[in-house]
Design goal:
The chain has about 120 residues and is mainly alpha-helical. The chain contains 7 helices and 2 strands, in the order H-H-H-H-H-E-E-H-H. The chain has one domain: Helicase, Ruva Protein, domain 3 (Orthogonal Bundle), CATH 1.10.8. Helix content is about 60%, strand content about 5%. Strands 1-2 form a two-stranded antiparallel ribbon. Helix 2 packs parallel to helix 6 and helix 3 runs antiparallel to helix 6. A hairpin with a 2-residue loop joins strand 1 and strand 2. Pfam families: DUF2200. InterPro entries: SP1917_dom_sf (IPR023204), UCP033199 (IPR014580). It comes from Pirellula staleyi (strain ATCC 27377 / DSM 6068 / ICPB 4128). This is DUF2200 domain-containing protein.
């Protein structure tokens, strides 16, 4: 997907899909929110505000309070592309989030998902 289209996508439209994916695998919205908070630094109120304002992905990541320094430890492939090979910074941030949600849906422990162990 091109940067222009991913950057223009509304985070509020994708967020429910993240939650749905997690819940299908008996995970929770709270876990999805914890992942987003870890990655971006948004607290519950900040995340709710971004969703309510229907910001796009570009704005969502640009306004993130504190992108986690350990996000560079997120490796692997998503949609057949190696995350560490993605050059576009916005696309890489979106793929980091996608990868973390995939790991949650695959049943990984939160401490592993959040690169704590």
């Amino acid at each position: 997907m091109a940067r222009q289209s991913i950057g223009a996508m509304k985070f509020s439209k994708v967020y429910p899909l993240y939650v749905q994916k997690a819940e299908k695998k008996q995970r929770t919205q709270a876990e999805v929110d914890q992942i987003i908070s870890w990655l971006t630094g948004y607290d519950a109120a900040g995340l709710a505000k971004q969703i309510a304002q229907e910001v796009n992905f570009e704005t969502f990541f640009a306004k993130a309070p504190a992108l986690h320094p350990n996000r560079a430890l997120i490796k692997g492939t998503i949609c057949g592309v190696r995350i560490e090979a993605i050059e576009d910074p916005l696309m890489r941030e979106v793929r980091y989030l996608d990868k973390l949600i995939d790991e949650l849906a695959q049943g990984k422990a939160m401490e592993k998902i959040l690169r704590q162990a």
